[in-house]
Each structure stands twice: as structure tokens, then as C-alpha cells.
């Protein structure tokens, strides 16, 4: 039996993702439910997604700026207004000490009860979530949750120079990995998830109506795996107790 915090025990959530649109593909329906219940959600996007898109006439800097705007618009669709970017280079991420420190800094700033992140494990059943940048962010973010952010002696400059006290996040939700132990019924928030993904015009406009069909197929399969009734839709996670 998976031990999952009741949402009534959660005041703040931090979602740490590699690229603009990652959080919307993996968790936007779930996040829409959280914000509707009054939970504060912050997005931390490690890159600007400048290596994505299909417009060869646009510079990479222009693409990054556009994708930041798209992520802010997508966040608004699900009730999130705190969106932060670290500006690391797209496609070149590694789980370095610097990246761990930068994520730990935001954990100490936001002081979340729950942190959502990509799984650091490769998923051989469904390869697309296992982009190297996703796995690198998952590894760095998990290390930032434990042990970095809670250890007052890790990155002492965060306390000495920035006044950021140690903070223990109680729970991690991993998205896109090979192990699933928790499903969230997002049927009632499907339209908000779809709107968020459509906000990423550079990534999804070419899919047209196929985007909704793809999502319904994937989310419907998740719901079936969770034992939910026909017609329901669900997002999958591996929940890890980190208290």
C-alpha cells in the first residue's frame, strides 16, 4: 500500500522539470486539481527549451524566450502563477553539484511539502519520458530533496549569504518512470490539461486534434491500469516518502 500524503496536509508543491511542457505532459491534470483545492504550486524549469521546436528560421535564443512565454501561459491554465527558470542549456544537462545546489536553493525558498520531478530511471516500456535531460533533472532534484535541501551544512552559502534555512520536503512524486504506485483521476481536469498543452504552440500545434486523441488514449490506459471505471482518465506517478 502506497503511503501518500492527503492533500489536506499539503500547503505547497514544487514541480522541477527539464523543459517547458514537461510538467504539462506529465502532471498538469493533477496540478489543476491541487490548485483548485487551494494548494500553492511553483514550477522550476531547468532549461528554456531552446533546442526544441520546428522553426528553423528562429534563433535558439528567440525559441527559448518564446517557450518561456508558452510555459507561463500553460501554467495559468492550471492555476499556477509562480514559474521560475534556471536557464541551463537544453540538451546538455547533467546532475552536477551546481544543478543540485540551484534546485536546493528553490526548495529552501518555496518550502514545499511535495516535490514533483521526472524519474531518474529509464523507462523501457515507454521511452519518450526518458530523455537524458529528464533523467538528469530527476537525479539532481531527488538529491536536492535528500540530502541537500534538508542538510544545513550542504551548500553553506545558501544559509550564510542568502539566509535560506534547511527544509525537508515530505514527499516526492516521480513522473514518467518505469514504476507506478499511484494514479490520480484527472477526468474532470482534462480540458485544463489540454489547454495547457495547446499553449505550447511550438511543440503541439502540428498535432492538431490528434493531441486530444493521443492524451485520451494514454490517460485512459492509465485509468484502466488503476482499476477506474471506463471513460475515466488518470496520470501515473511513483510516490516516494522522503520525510
From TrEMBL:
The lineage of its organism: Bacteria, Bacillati, Actinomycetota, Actinomycetes, Streptosporangiales. Keywords: Zinc. This is PIG-L family deacetylase. It comes from the Bacteria. It comes from Actinomadura miaoliensis. Pfam families: PIG-L.
Amino acid at each position: 500500500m502506497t503511503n501518500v500524503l492527503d492533500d489536506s496536509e499539503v500547503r505547497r508543491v514544487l514541480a522541477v522539470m527539464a523543459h517547458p511542457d514537461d510538467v504539462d505532459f506529465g502532471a498538469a491534470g493533477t496540478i489543476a486539481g491541487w490548485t483548485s483545492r487551494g494548494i500553492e504550486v511553483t514550477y522550476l524549469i531547468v532549461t528554456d527549451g531552446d533546442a526544441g521546436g520546428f522553426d528553423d528560421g528562429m534563433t535558439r535564443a528567440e525559441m527559448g524566450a518564446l517557450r518561456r512565454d508558452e510555459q507561463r501561459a500553460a501554467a495559468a491554465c492550471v492555476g499556477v502563477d509562480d514559474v521560475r527558470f534556471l536557464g541551463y542549456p537544453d540538451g546538455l544537462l547533467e546532475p552536477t553539484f551546481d544543478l543540485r545546489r540551484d534546485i536546493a536553493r528553490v526548495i529552501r525558498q518555496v518550502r514545499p511539502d511535495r516535490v514533483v520531478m521526472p524519474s531518474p530511471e529509464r523507462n523501457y516500456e515507454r521511452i519518450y519520458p526518458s530523455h537524458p535531460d529528464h533523467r538528469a533533472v530527476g537525479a539532481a532534484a531527488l538529491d536536492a530533496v535528500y540530502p541537500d535541501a534538508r542538510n544545513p551544512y550542504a551548500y553553506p552559502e545558501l544559509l550564510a549569504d542568502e539566509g535560506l534555512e534547511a527544509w525537508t520536503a515530505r514527499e516526492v512524486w516521480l513522473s514518467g518512470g518505469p514504476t507506478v504506485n499511484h494514479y490520480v483521476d484527472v477526468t474532470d481536469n482534462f480540458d485544463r490539461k489540454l489547454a495547457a498543452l495547446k499553449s505550447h504552440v511550438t511543440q503541439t500545434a502540428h498535432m492538431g486534434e490528434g493531441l486530444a486523441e493521443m492524451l485520451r488514449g494514454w490517460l485512459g490506459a492509465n485509468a484502466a491500469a488503476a482499476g477506474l471505471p471506463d471513460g475515466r482518465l488518470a496520470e501515473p506517478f511513483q510516490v516516494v516518502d522522503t520525510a
